Amino acid sequence: MKNDEHVNLEQFMAGVERRNPHETEFIQAVREVSEDIFEFIQDKKKYHEYQILRRIAEPDRVISFRVCWEDDNHNIRVQRGYRVQNNNSIGPYKGGIRFHPSVSQSILKFLAFEQTFKNSLTGLPMGGGKGGADFNPKGKSEHEVMRFCQSFMTELYRHVGDDTDVPAGDIGVGAREIGFMFGQYKRITNKFTGVLTGKGLAFGGSLVRTEATGYGAVYFLQEMLAHRGDEINGKTAVISGAGNVATHAAEKIVQLGGKVLTLSDSTGFIHDPVGIDQEKIEWVKEHKGVRRGNLAEYATEHKGATWHAAEKPWSVPCDMALPCATQNEMNGAEAALLVSNGCMAVSEGANMPVDLDGVHVFKDAGICYAPGKAANAGGVAVSGLEMSQNSARLSWSEEQLQQQLKDIMKGIHSRCVEYGSLDNGKVDYVKGANIAGFVKVADAMIAYGVV
Length: 451
Ligand code: NDP
Ligand code: 2IT
Description:
Layout: H1 9-19, H2 24-41, H3 45-49, H4 52-56, E1 61-70, E2 76-87, E3 93-99, H5 105-122, E4 128-133, H6 142-156, E5 165-168, H7 175-189, H8 209-227, E6 236-240, H9 244-255, E7 259-265, E8 268-271, H10 278-290, H11 297-301, E9 306-309, E10 320-323, H12 332-340, E11 345-347, H13 356-365, E12 368-370, H14 372-375, H15 377-392, H16 398-420, H17 429-448
Helix pairs in contact: 1-2, 2-5, 2-17, 5-15, 5-17, 6-7, 8-9, 8-15, 8-16, 9-10, 12-13, 15-16, 16-17
This protein binds NADPH dihydro-nicotinamide-adenine-dinucleotide phosphate and (2Z)-2-iminopentanedioic acid.
């Protein structure tokens, strides 16, 4: 077993690009991880011999299927559904489902790849997967969403299961959609099992799951600052997004004494110099989340706030930034602008929100920078706790779960410090997260032999 021992990063990436033509997001995610892993495995023969990185970067399987549904005007509509099962070496495939018109095989492969490292970092027994469809829930009636979810699950059910693959929510998929999908799974299989997480509390859901990703991203930020002898209290934050992750990140920043200056959606951002407090966050949750309204109306409802159509919030000077909307929402120039305006900490609530140029800007500037696979792992971690509660047919208390979430984020921070500490005393959290996530999966794969 000698192959690839002397292949360098560029030769490896050339192979990834050749095998995955046009899958730009997937190639980007593999490169970001490989930059660190290549250096780490240089003197570790077993990882070369077993071709571990090459194997993690090839999903176990990609399932793609047709989803037909009927809209309210009796038109037959056809969408494309997917489930990417990337790696189940350390537990059942686990990861969200995204409904958004931009969903493609490349995006779901990148998300399933990232999820493999993220889930490993949590310390819980979960493999990596991701799914979704190019369905746009915006402007659809409740019944249209229900029919779509039912049709989606009518195919997906045969590929998932509580010991096989456990999906959850992501962009465009919240408690409502999970309820429709869980109902259809139960109906088809006649089984009440923990096949999905993020369920309603009445049917096996876990307390704290809704808040977990946003809160977790702020706990991680808190840990990074504490490591440098600093704190959130008194600092300003720029946040993108106005969905589940963004609103809960904002909530926790406010609780810890920080001031939230912005939120955004796909049409622009709001800037509220006096701060977006809990009452205003509730307004956003209700207006965007429940009534599915327009964020621009925030500026007419709240004195002093301004609306910036078709712009991103990165030009607003701040101490901390939390990108919580979507992939590649910040480029190198925007990252550089944040740093030059004094931003000293970035915690990614979204998955891969900063492009590779931006990642290098933050690394070179030496600011506290947490990649999504570490910072946003709180969501999937509480999903893992939901799976445990479902298996035991128990529900744990809010207090217990809040504490577990904090402990898990602390644990992830420690693992990043273990593998990412630099000679200058700072921590490269990208490197730390990549290596710590990799080692556990790699060692399990070696134990299984060549399968
Ligand atoms: P939501 O659907 O609740 O909210 C998504 C937010 O991002 C909305 O404000 C939306 O704006 C905005 N957005 C989505 N797509 C785009 C786009 N292409 N351009 C600009 N803005 C966009 O999703 P979540 O809050 O759950 O997810 C946000 C991010 O966090 C994603 O990257 C997701 O993968 C990640 N994540 C989520 C977890 C979870 O538990 N939910 C766990 C870990 C990571 P609009 O309303 O205009 O579409
Ligand atoms: O990106 C993610 O970690 C999620 N969307 C949550 C996945 C999960 O299984 O809870």
